[in-house]
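Figure 3 (text version): structure tokens given as input.
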């Protein structure tokens, strides 16, 4: 299960999706949230898209941060 996030309006994001999409043949990784409108319909929130190299860099940064916290 993906983590829950909040947006700038402090609304709870009900679901976070991580999808692999293809644009011009190269895979891209799209991370975004989905929340519910007052009428119960889903609304896509802002997201971010990474290529494989960017996602690997983010992983390494987060890994280093996690290791620093454990010390």
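Below: residues designed for each position.
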């Amino acid at each position: 299960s993906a983590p829950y996030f909040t947006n700038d309006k402090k609304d709870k994001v009900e679901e976070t999706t991580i999808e692999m999409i293809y644009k011009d043949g190269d895979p891209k990784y799209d991370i975004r949230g989905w929340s519910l409108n007052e009428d119960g319909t889903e609304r896509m929130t802002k997201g971010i898209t990474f290529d494989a190299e960017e996602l690997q860099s983010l992983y390494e940064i987060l890994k280093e941060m996690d290791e620093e916290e454990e010390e």
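The chain is about 25% helix and 40% strand.
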